[in-house]
Structures are given as C-alpha cells and as structure tokens.
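Internal ticket #5521
Category: modeling
Description: The requester needs a full-assembly model to guide mutagenesis choices. All entity lines are attached below as received. Residue total reported by intake: 1850.
Assigned to: D.W.
Attached entities:
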Amino acid sequence: MTQTKQFGPLTRLLMNDAAGRKLLLVLAVMAVFIPLSNLLLPEGSFFHVSTYTMTLLGKYLCYALLAIAVDLIWGYCGILSLGHGAFFALGGYAMGMYLMRQIGDRGVYGNPELPDFMVFLNWTELPWYWLGFDQFWFAMLMVLLAPGILAFVFGALAFRSRVTGVYLSIITQALTYALLLAFFRNDMGFGGNNGLTDFKDILGYSLQSDNTRAVLFVASVLALILGYLISRFIVTSKLGRVLVAIRDSESRARFLGYRVEHYKLFVFVVSSMLAGVAGALYVPQVGIINPGEFAPINSIEIIIWVAVGGRGTLFGAVIGAMLVNYAKTYFTGAFAELWLFMLGGLFVLTTLYLPKGVVGLWAHLKEKYQQKKHQREAEDNPPALNTETQSKAAPEQQDKLNFVQGEKV
Amino acid sequence: MSLQTPKHIDNPAVLYMDGVSVSFDGFKALNSLSMVIAPGEMRAIIGPNGAGKTTMMDVITGKTRPDTGTIIFTDNANSQHDLTRFDEADVANLGVGRKFQKPSVIESLTVFENLEMSLKGGRSIWQALLHKLTAEKAQKLDDILDMIDLADKREELAGNLSHGQKQWLEIGMLLGQEPQLLLIDEPAAGMTDEETMKTAELFKRLAQKHSLMVVEHDMDFIEALDCKVTVLHEGHVLAEGSLATVKANPQVIEVYLGR
Amino acid sequence: MLNVNQLDVSYGASQALYNVCMSAEVGKVTCVLGRNGVGKTTLMKALSGHLSAGKGGIQWQGKSLNGIAPFDRARQGIAYVPQGRDIFAQLTVEENLQTAFSALPKSQRRIDPEIYSLFPVLQQMLKRRGGDLSGGQQQQLAIARALLLKPKLLILDEPTEGIQPSIIKDIGSVIKLLRDRGEMAIVLVEQYLDFAAELADEFIILERGRVVAAGAGSELASSQQAKELLAI
Amino acid sequence: ADTIKVGVLHSLSGTMAISETTLKDTVLMMVEEQNKKGGLLGKQLEAVVVDPASNWPLFAEKTRELLEKDKVDVIFGCWTSVSRKSVLPVVEELNGLLFYPVQYEGEESSKNVFYTGAAPNQQAIPAVDYLMNDVGVKRWVLAGTDYVYPRTTNKILESYLKSKGVAAKDIMINYTPFGHSDWQTIVSDIKKFGSAGVKTAVVSTINGDANVPFYKELANQGVSAEDIPVVAFSVGEEELSGFDTKPLVGHLAAWNYFMSADGKENDAFIKQWHSFTKDDKRVTNDPMEATYIGFNMWTKAVEKAGTADVSKVQDAMIGISVPNLTGGMAVMNKNHHLSKPVLIGEIQEDGQFDIVWQTDGVVPGDAWTDFLPESKNLISDWTAPINCGNYNTATKTCGGAVAAE
Amino acid sequence: MFTLFRRVFFAVLLLSASHNILANNADTQPSLAELSQKLISANYKEKAQLAEQIALIEDDQAIVILQALLDSRLYYVKNNEQLLLVDSSGESDTAQDAFTLQAVAGLGKRDIKKIGVNNSLRVALRSLISRAQISSKHKSQRMAAAQNLLKSSDDIDRAFIDQALERETDRDVAEVLQLVRALMQLKSDQTNERINGLTALDGALYPEVRAGLGEFIRNFSDEEKLSRKNEYQLAQTTLTDIEKLVSINGYIENLYFGLALGAVLLLAAIGLAITFGVMGVINMAHGEMIMLGAYTTYVVQLLMPEHIGLSLVVAVPAAFLVSGLVGVLIERGVIRHLYGRPLETLLATFGISLILQQAVRSIFSPLNREVATPEWMAGTFMINPALELTWNRLYIIIFSLMVLALLALVLKRTLFGLQMRAVTMNRPMASSMGIKTGWVDALTFGLGSGIAGIAGVALSQLTNVGPNLGQAYIIDSFMVVVFGGVGNLWGTLVGAMTLGVANKIFEPLAGAVLAKIMVLVFIILFIQKRPRGLFALKGRAVDNG
Ligand SMILES: Nc1ncnc2c1ncn2[C@@H]1O[C@H](COP(=O)(O)OP(=O)(O)OP(=O)(O)O)[C@@H](O)[C@H]1O
Ligand SMILES: Nc1ncnc2c1ncn2[C@@H]1O[C@H](COP(=O)(O)OP(=O)(O)OP(=O)(O)O)[C@@H](O)[C@H]1O
Ligand SMILES: NC(N)=O
Ligand SMILES: [Mg+2]
Ligand SMILES: [Mg+2]
C-alpha cells in the first residue's frame, strides 16, 4: 500500500503486487496447460492431468473466488459476513435452475416442462420464479442479480441502521440459516433437501464430456483472474483506502464526510456477486446444488480459508482457499478417520505461528530474522516476547472490530 | 439541502446555536446553550472539565442529537442548514471539520494516506474508485506534511506515531479537508510550549478564510490566539469576552482558573 | 531508587530508545522532557513493564525489573498513569478505583477519602461509567486510581493533559506533597515547561530516543539548552 | 491389478457419522472375512476408505476420487438420499457400481446402483397395514423431518390411507427441521390429536439426531405405546442404544431385520460383529444387514461373472440370492431392488426389538410406487429387452436419461 | 373383602369374553400354575385371555405374575419350562422361581427366555392390574386405576363403579370415579340420568370427557335435537365451557413450552456470554464444552450405575470441572496468544472444536451415548387434566435461572468479577493495576467453559449425547448472546426467553420449520431497530472504548 497513487487506475493494479503477478501467471499457465494435457496427452503420460484432478482444481478455483469475495469485505472493510455461503448458493441455484431446464424431457417422468421433483409433487405448471431460466443469458443475469439484490436489500437495511461488528455477523448468519431452512422445504420449489442434480448438459454440450469440463475449468480460471483484478482495482483505488478507514474507525470516516453505508453497501453487493459467480461455476463442476450450501458452518469455513491464507491480502485468500481445501481432500482420503485432528491442528497452528496467515509467513520470517539480528547485537537480555509488544508493533493486524466495546473513534 | 422553514437571521452567522440542551440519563451535559460564530471568526472555548465543550462539538457534528434547540449552519453559498437533522457525513460535507480531543487517525493507513483521504472533495463512490492524485493535490499534501513536521514519517503507519504526532496529523487532516468551520478540541495537549505557539500562529492564519472554534485549557495558548473567549460551565455560557475580561471574572476564577 | 542503565527499546524492527540512562530517587521528582515523538512515552512503558527492554536494565530498589510483568511491578509499588488515560470505559468510576485493590493486601482494600478531597468530581460521579466522563475527568480518575495503589514509584505520563488550570495547580501541590512525604519516587513526563520547572528535582531531556541533557530541577527554568531542545 | 478394490463411502465425521461409521466397519469386517476365506477370484480384497464428511458435494468428489484415482471395483456407501443423488451422476458417468444399504423413498433406479435397503412398499406400507389391521388404528399422525425421504414416504402413505377410507381430518402431517430438538409442542399436539377417543398412531419418518429428543419428550410427556404407538422407519437398535428405552417400551419400528431375530446366520453375524469390534455390547441393525446382503451378493456375482468388471457384475447380479439374516433368501430383482421379508418390532427395555409381526414371505422392492399417479405406470427392468430404469408400461417407452446407453 | 370384590368384578368381566378357546370346564377352575404355564406357548391373543383368567384367581401371586409379565420380567427356562421372575436388568443370576420365589442358580443368559408381550397385551394387563388396584391401599395406585377406568368406561359394570365410589375416601379419586360414572350415565336411556351425568361433567378437563361428550352430541339425530332440546343445549354448553378452559390451559402450556425452550437456550448461551460476551473470544468451541459436560454426565452414570438419581447432582460439579479445566488449557495453550486479535480466536477455536469432536468420536465412538433420566426428573405433574407440565423442563428452568443468578453475583459482587471485566476492557492497564491478567484470563475462560459444561449436564437429559451435540447449539447460543446484547447478562436472559417464547408463538401458527425461519427473520429485523441488541450499552463508554 505504498506509493501507488501516482499511477492511473489501470496501471496501478499490479504494481506493487509481486505475489499477485505470480498468482495470475500461475493461473494463466494452468488455464492453458491443464485442459490441454487432460484432453491431448494419453492417460499414462506423466504430464497427463486426470479429469478428476481438473474437476477438483476447478472446484478449488471457485472456492478461491469465493474467498476473494469474502476477503474484499472482511479483510478490507471489516464486514465479517458469516453468511456469504448464501450468495454462493444463490448463484449456484440460478445456474442449477438453468441446468435443470436443460434436462427437458429427459427426466425420469419425461415431462418436458417440469423438473422431476415438481412432477412428483403434482405441480402442474412451472412456478413463476422458474420462468426464463431456460435461457442461458437470463440465468447468467440471475447469477449476478439474485445474490446482488439480496445483498443490496439486506445491506441497505443493515448498514443504514449502523449494524456493525458481531451484530452484523450474526444477522448474516441468521440470513443464511433462514435460507437453509426455507430451501429445505419442498414447497419452495427448489427441490428440497436433494436440491438440483442429475444435470445433463450446458449450452447443448454434455456435462460429462471432458471437453465441457475443460471449458468449465478454463472459465473458472478466467473468473478467478477477473475477480482478482476487479477486487484489486477496488482495493488499490482510493475507495480501497476508504474501506480500510471504515474497517479501522467507521466513525472517523464519517466525520471526514464519507457516507460509510454507501461504501459498505457497494463492496457488499460486489462481493455477493463475485460469490454468486463462484457458485454458478461450482455447480456444473460438482454436479449438485442443494440447501447444504446455505449451512452456516459452510460460511464459517470460508472465513477460515481467508484467515489461514492471510486476511486483507487478496492473494492470501486464494492461497488459503486452495490450501485448506486441498488439505481437506487429501486428509479425508488419506486419513479418513483422523483427518479432523489434522485440519483442526492446522488451524490452531496457523493462528499461533502465522498470525498473518500463510502469506504472512515470509514477512514473518524476515521480521524474525531482523529481530534475531537485533538481539545478537543486543547480546544479552532477550526480550520476553509479550503480546502487547507484538500487537503494538503491528497495529494493522489488530482487529478493529472490537466486539465488546464497539468500535473505536 | 437548505432549511425547510428559513428562520432568517439578518447578519448570517456561520454557526448559530440557540437553546441547545442534551442530557444523559437525567444529567444535563448541555443546558440551553446559545452561541453565535461569525464568518471568519476565531473563537476560543474554555471551561472546567465536564463543562460540556466536547459534547457541544458532538452535537454540532451530528454525533449526538440534542434534546431541544436549534443549530443552524450557513454555508459559503449562504444557504442555511439545520444541523440537527443531518448525520456526521452530511455535516462534514456541508463544511464542518473536526479534530477530536483524543487523537483519532486511521491507524492502519499511512500518514500520507490519512491526509489524502481528508482532501476536500471526491466523497462519492465513483469518485473514490476513479480517483487520481493530481500534481496540484500532491503538492498540497506535501505542503501540509511539511507544515505538520511529518514529512519524514510520510510512509509510516499512523498507528505507529506518538501521541503528539497524531495530534499534528489530525490537524493536518483538518487542513486538507478545508472546511468552512473548524471545531478543534484541545489541539495543544501534549505539545511543547514552542509547538503550542506554532499551532496558535497556524490557527490565526486560518482564521482569515475559515471560522474556528478552539477548545483548550492552556491559557498561554488562548492568549496567543488573541480572540474572543467563551467560558462554558455546566452546559451553558458562563462568560464571554476578551481573555482579560473573562480571566478577571470571579466566577471563572472560582470554577475554572483557581486562585 | 530507580535506576535505568543503557536502555534500548524497539518497536519491532524500529528502535525508539538508545542507551538511555536515568535514575529517580525516593522523595524526589524526576522530570522527563522532550518534543513529540522523542521517546518519552516509550520510556515510561518500559518502566511500567509494557514494553520489554531490548538491552540494558531497569532496577528498582536494587532488583532488576527485566522480565517482570506489569502486575508484579504494580505489586512492588510501581503505579502508572499512562498518556491517554486508559481508564476502564465500562466500569463505573468507583469500580475503576477498586481495581487497585488487586495489588493491595485485604486489610488495605478501601478507598481513601483523601482522594475525593483532591478530586471532588469523582465523588459526584461514582456511579457513572468511566468512559462517559469528560476527558479531563478521566485524567483525574487515572491519577486517583494510581494513587490508590499506594505506590512507591509513581510514573506520570503528561498528567496535566486536558485538565483545567485550577486542578493542574492542585495536582502540582499534590505531587509536591507526595514528594515531601518522602515515601515515593516520582517520574513525571511533562511538556509544559513552567509546570515541570516548578516541580522537578532532577530532569532529563530526550532527543530522538537519546538522553541529551540532564541536571538538577533548579537549573531547568533558566537553562538555555533546555529551551532549545524543546523548541521546534 | 493384483487386488480387488472395494471403496467405502460413508461419512465418518459430521452429522451422519453417527449412523454411517457402523456401515464402514461392517464393510471392513466383510472384507476381512472374505480375505480370510482366500479373497475373491484368488485375489485379496482391499478396502479403500474415504470420508465424505456428511457433505453432499463432497460425496460426488470422493466418488470420482474412488473411481478415477483409486480405481475401485465397487463402492459400498451413502446413507441419506441426497448423498446418493449427488453420487449418482458420477457413478453413471464413470460406470461405477454402488451398493446403497439404506431404506429410502424409491422413485429411482439406476443401472449402476443396487438398492439393498427397503423401498417404501417394503417398510412403510406393511407397517401401516399392521397398525390398521392388527392394532385398529383409525387416526394417523405422519411426522417427519422436512426433506425428501419423509415427504415422499408420507405422500405415498397419505394416498394409501385415503385409498383405505381414512378421512383427511384423521391424518395430521407434521414436519420439523433437521436436528430439531424442541419437541414439546409437537408431542403435546400429538397427545391432543390422539385423545379424541379414536385409536391413534404416529408414523415417524423423523431422521437422525432429532430422534433422541423426540423420544425423550414422548417419555416425559407420558405418551405410552399403549395409548399412542409410534412406528418409526429410521430408528433401529443403534439409535436406541443412545437412550434410555425403559419409558418407550412398546413403540414400534418396521424394518427388514432386527437383531433379535432368531436364526443361525444372525447369531453368527452378531458373533462376528462382536469379535470384530471387540465389544460384545455392540448392536447390529438393518442397514448392516443390507450391507451384508449387498456384499455377499456382490462377491457371488463376481464369482459368477469370473471378473470384477462392472458391466459383467451388473448383469450377473440379477437373480443372485443370498441368505437373509432373519431366515429365508434375499433375491436381487431386475429393478436392482431386493425381495426381502418385512418385520415389525416393539421396543423392549433392553433396547432390542421384539418382533411382533412379519410378512409371510418376501416382498419384492418396488422402485416406482403404485400409489402415486405419476409413477403408477413406471417400472424398472435392467434386463433385455427393456433395459430401462423407468419404463412406462402404458406408453411402452423408456423415459428419461437413465435409459441404457 | 378385597378378594371378594375382585371376584365379583372379574366374574362380570369374564361374561363378556364370549368364547374362550383355552377355557377349561367352568366348574374345575385351572390353577394359577397351570394357567401361567400356558403363557409360554400361547400367542398374544391367547395370552390376553390367559391373563384374564389368572386375574380371577384369588392369590396375590397372580397379580405378581401379571405384573411381571407386564414388566417383561417373566421368563422361563428353555429346557424345562420352569417359570421364573427375573429382575429388570434381565440378568439370569437374579432369577427366582415364579411361584416359590426361591432363587434359581446356575442359569446362563442363553438358557432362559422371556415371555413376550406386545402393546395390546400390555393394555389388557395394565387394565386388569389397575382395576384390581382400585381398592389398593395407596392413593396414587387408586388414582391411576380410576383414570384408567375413565379410558374404558364402556366395558365396565355400573355396580362396580358405584361400589368403588362408596368405598372411596379420597376426594380426588372420587372425583375421577364420578366422571366415570357420569360418562356411563350419558349412555343411559333415562333422561334425568343423562342430565345428571351432563351436570357432573361440567368443567371436567379429562380428554375422555370431551370425547364422550362429543360422541354424545354427535348421536343426536336432527329431530332429537328438537325433542330433547334442553339436553342437547346443556351438552353443548358443557362442551364449549370445557373447551374454553382447555384452550386457556393450552395457552398457558404454550407459554411454559416457550419458557422451557428459553431456559435451554439460556443455559446453552450463558457460558458463551462469558467467553464471548465478556472476553470477546469468538468461541467456536463453546458447543464442544457443552458436549464435554454431557459426556461427563455419561461417565458419571457409568461410574455410579446404582445411583442414577444422585448422578446428576454429582455430574454438575464434575462437568464444571472437566469443561472448566479443558477451558483453562485452551486458554493457556492457545487463546492467550491471541488477545487483541479477536477474529483469530475464531480460527483457532474452530480448529479446537474439530479436534474435540474427533477426540470424542475416537474415545467414545461416534454413536450416541445413553444417559438415563433419574426418577425425579421423569414424568409430568398435573396441574389439571388439561395442563400437565414436565418435571424435567421445570427443573431446567429453575436450574438455568440459578446458574445465571450465581454468575451475575460473581461478576458484579466479587473482586474477581471486577478483575474479569477490567482485564477484558484493557488488558495492559489492568496489569498495571496489579491484576494478574494471565491468571484472570485463564479463570474467566475456565468459568465460561465450566458453565457450558453444566449446560451439557442439563442437555444430556433432553437430547443426544453424541459428538454433534455441540454443533447443534453453537449457532443458537451466539444468536441469543448477540440478540440480548453482547456483554450483558440480563440481555442474555431476556434474549433467550424472548426467542424461546417467540418460537413457541410462531410454531402453532406455521409449523416448526416456518416458525424457526420466522424467528430468524425476527432477529434480523430486530437488530435493525436495535443495532446493539436488546440491552445495548449506550453512551460514550461504548463509542470510545
Ligand atoms: N454518555 C454520557 N453519559 C453520562 N454522562 C456523560 C455522557 N457523555 C458526557 N457525559 C458527561 O457530560 C459532561 C460533559 O462532558 P464533556 O466531555 O462535554 O466535557 P468537556 O467540557 O469536554 O470536558 P473536558 O475539558 O474534560 O474535556 C461530563 O460531566 C460528562 O461526564
Ligand atoms: N507502536 C509503535 N510502533 C512503532 N513505532 C512507534 C510506536 N509507538 C511509537 N512509535 C515511535 O516511537 C517514537 C517515540 O514515541 P513516543 O510515543 O515514545 O514519543 P513521546 O516522546 O511520548 O511523544 P509525545 O510527546 O508525542 O507523546 C516515535 O517516533 C513514534 O513514531
Ligand atoms: N434414505 C434416507 N433415509 O434418507
Ligand atoms: Mg472535552
Ligand atoms: Mg508520549
């Protein structure tokens, strides 16, 4: 966050973002190499990437985009949303509804108009909110609008009423929880607990073909890159600094004349849309969307990814999402019965030893090294590492969401 | 945004306060307070601890809603606004800037970014998103940095400043904001005598273009400001006039200055 | 007797104090002066235990304070009035005062009414929450709270900040009184030269984290060097 | 490969671990035993255990992992219907083989799945018949967790009850969220509904964690089986082992297996289970039997086909029969569902069920229920010439995409 | 007298059993032993008939055998069909001969078999036994018997009731018997009998009365409604009066349910009101602390299986210690490194929560554990026949309030409470006031965790004791604390009760699922009105922290 202001809005994006440049490079390489190797190289080849791996990576990429969305509001603006899974799920449902409509008369009951679960519930016509979802463009629009509008209405209410801190967190959680229960209900018309599944094809291409999967993978990479750039654009602008100001001291920002609620609403809506896009790309790759995605615990996990990666660095959010989910995939396969110990341990150790998350590791090591050097110069009296010193030394890592006492002026 | 029912004041004051009262759980922090600040005026406010000075600023800036009373602000375009209806951001955008008693800067932004954020204009989302620092603005920031003696801390996080440095930074932010009316709560606290004088000089220069309301307990500083002084006590005005007159007022001596 | 020997203190990688030496005797007021950002508060935090000494040592009554936590220092009679007051915002005034009981034996756990004669406003506001007080009232509370610890070393970081003139005078007399009782060493950070000059028995002046001048209090008022060092 | 790989896809953590962990152990026990017998086709069996963690999309991911990465020959797994629905497209795409051991709502038949749990006609309908005919129940409470299995089952039951002349006012339907724990109002309502002087029973499709608080509340409010019996489809010995059954004696459950059933096979199975778990208090239950049957059928089919190749085994499966643990033989039908006996048991103080009623012979599982208009005409038949999971006998067409490719 | 009475009664009863396949020649009454022996091979229908015959036998042992049959304690030896009484544990070494009551040794578990009963048989047995008990010495048995008669007023002889009433000395029991008689009177063909019956039923809240009245009214044909207008109207007003009373009782009951639910929420949340509300730790492991308390209850019961009644009393301090100690360990090991970084406590405690869940799964198995309900907590107490409140909920309401009061006392009235609050408000300054911050932090977290453990004891009485227990309560707990206003114990109390009652108000209107959704929406909207919870702290103290 230094010396960026001399540059125009576009050039500044990747200046001072060595990590981000590397990340984008890796993503770009992945976007080219992985699909090609999957499609062209023979299965035995060392460089062959299996469809399993590609699909898995695609899923991680969606999670990474979701993590960016959360980091944008949490890391930069201090809005701890414990309900962001809701926006992800809504995007997913919008996509899922499109995919359902694509099934046409190939459902088990062979009804050309109605998805199977509706036939089964004796519904005779498509409910109004399903209209239009047979059109791809409309569904894509809804991928953005459904989460966006919900975020707008919810955010406008909450931010105008100055609901902050943990109060906001908890009502976002209440929101996703309420949606979870609502979507469970068969009467809602979204397939109840089973959700939407058994998709056949997208834009006429079979979802089971490797080509389609490769395209979806590339789309996920592109979405992540785009999401990263958009977020980067926001946080490196002056708006980004206003967000940090709001995170640090909301009322100070107000006294400077910034309409805090507008700023919050803006990032909240942008973030919800990013989450929606992530959800939309996720659904065709995993093949199912169901109310489980609304579960509060899922939203908490997103926060965990960001925290593990390093809150307040977009790049860290990506790393965190990838790392935690890879760990989960690996542990649940390799240590099916003990993996919770490992994942739990990973989280605890991260907080203890990597206060700024995985991406903070480097900076941390550097600082440690300098302290060591310093100490060696100081010869004796090693300083007792006390927490006060640590937190004083790096106020930016102190959380300004001071839960008990409200925010500071 | 002008006032609905213009209660016209002949000699437009920048700030017109009449009968403002605030109470907290029955305790009257402001008690029918009235005061008028003229354009370009500098006004010093003194008064015992707990007299209601800070509360008064809270009321003007929209942080606290008064129980009764009117507060009318006349902007440069000569339109009048009833401040009791606006929130903090609105009041700030109308042209009222404030420095807090307890230094408050944005700790995880650098000194430079703090100042940049305070610069006048560009408060809307789109402006913030597409904001570009012009050479002119950059120059202005550099000037301010020099003035507040923090040029060498330009890239330092504001949270890492000492108490006094934060005070200075906050004054700098006020300068960047260029408000029409400045409310300054205890600027000299924690400054050396020299710095105190320097601050007084600075304010006097500002007073030509802006209106200022300065709260202090440091009598030397008040003296250096050389302006009309209002003494608050128990939420209303106890005395008003030149420093010499109020200093001679036995009540002021009794409750404030001591013998 | 407090002795500070070649003390270095850093914030992470940046060093704020270099090789600071000073001492404070019981029955005397030692003033620490210097412009903004020279390291006065840093030094006080090191004395009270909130920052750890990088190099060098602090000794109190012959024993090293290195590695001793603030609460143990408080129990050894070191009381601290920080810059910025740090009162407990949501405790009532009375409860704020009662926190001092933690460092006292059971028999001494009561609020000495003397405190109220010094700061009458506190008695009026016993049930009000500390955070609701005005700035100056909070400062008075912070001083009162420290005095209740019955300290042998009193560390005051700009105690007059934000306090009305009449009470500053009172505080001045209290400090004198405490000094004259001869039971207490007092370290006072002050920017207000007149006030410091009136009270100081000894003084040091800091400049960019180093001690650049020291001497007896009586010299302070007239010292040209002091004036220069405190100028801009 | 030098081993035959058996994938085990049951949640070992999360909300479903409570039920599914046992099934994982059952499969491991079966594998171990098979290996003791010399394996299969001369090869050892190798179990590959993964944890889908009660997370439905993760089920799909893990299935893909098992099939693509671990290249397993068969998968035993899933409990909830939604997990099965999540897995289904993957096993179909990659032509895997899934054995699903839990009672479910029906309305499905996949070429790649063998359903060894009960279809509604093998559990719900017989239970209602029993209550109607033998107990004289005239008023019904259908209480369930709000999701697809209970909704579907209740829909079928409602239609069935009405066809038997039960008036709408004598049916009370009630849904609760997953993990519902405050049952005061509902139990009190049931009590009121049942105090109209007409014999009333509760048909419970309440699932999982909600059951313990439900039964505790029944006990506390003194709803005894003599007044208002509750017949459950998701409460077995394992669930009962989690609470004090003394106040619940006489409430019912309908299953295809009870641990208390007499018989040599059952005794042997229980013994084997006790020695495998090194705990002679461990209970057995119906989904375990379904796993047992499925596993035995699979080994038999592999032997018959002479290979573990999925397509060959699929064909060989149909018509295979293995002993039930309750006596008699289970047969795999053309619709990939079993023919099994239906049993009704009453809860005893010791947490076991006393079998109070059972069907004369076996009941063939019906994939598509006859009691709903949409599926009345559908059948499933995975043999030539039909070779279809949802064949419409009226239009003589194979609907949908489950059609043989 | 007693036996004579019984004979009369059962003789009447026997007449109604029209054909009896097992009946011996009416003159030669089979002996108790003979009849009992037949139970072994009889099916359920036959067992019912046998039981009726056994009940006729003038031998106190007959009732003992019927009772044993009802309680599933009647066994037989597989190879010689000797009838045994076994105690409720079902262990073969407690076997006695059913007739001689001599202990029978040397039997293994597999040697004996229980004589099964099913529900209908149980109904029959209970009614046989309870009818015999209408003349029992104990009031409670007579009361139960009378209530049982109410259920089956159709097949009882009028003379039997009259006699019983005559002999009854207790008013309550007599009242019930009168209702039985009144219900019979409704069936009479004499108008004034029926009118008497109707008058006697006035205000009676037993559901059987409503059912009887309902049926009585339904049986009026259209012309009877005119011809017996008075009677018809009397019946109707009697029924509406009763129904009014019942519905009032329904509201009271619902309120009680709401408070009871609130008490559960309160218990679950109080610990969090400390660790989160006071300390600011976003404690995702709070649920697991509750879980540990519940498992402690389980272990305590394992250790003292003979004293289930006492076990809960022991479990409360035990759970406090176990959860509290784990809390202290967590605080010392992890949390203390995170002060000033509240959001990271979320990450760390989430990790801890996963670890604890898995630990419990590994140690105790993933299955739910059985925690028994002590006698004194089971059942209901009847305020009136339309309003029966469950004991366990009442205890939990009282218990939760006690815990809260105790905690409030500690917080507000002790130096430790003051230190707790001071430390969380400003840790460095608290230290400078001589407060051992580390010590206070550890104890505070331990206190919050310990209280969560206590909640676990209570919850073990209501719900699953399994690895997921904590997950089921964590979200609700946070909602309660936040809804009430963070850092305010009163808020937690009122918040919990409000949410509990709100839930129970919505539930009858919309069903459990929608009710829950409505409560969540209510929370969201409420927070808009009061952005800092129900009991928000106000003023500068909050803003300026
Ligand atoms: N929220 C509140 N609740 C209760 N009392 C309050 C509250 N806010 C302010 N007060 C009281 O109102 C009075 C006025 O406070 P204010 O801060 O305005 O004084 P001040 O004149 O700025 O004093 P100082 O010179 O010490 O800064 C004080 O007595 C204070 O205790
Ligand atoms: N938390 C911190 N991290 C890094 N640097 C700091 C921190 N706090 C203070 N500093 C730096 O240390 C130096 C000394 O600060 P200190 O607060 O001791 O000054 P001071 O003499 O008390 O000044 P003042 O009179 O303004 O209170 C300053 O240059 C300041 O920028
Ligand atoms: N299939 C079930 N029980 O969900
Ligand atoms: Mg003030
Ligand atoms: Mg300082």
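Resolution: model delivered.
Comment from assignee: Chain E touches chain A through 62 residues (CB under 8 Å).
Ticket closed.
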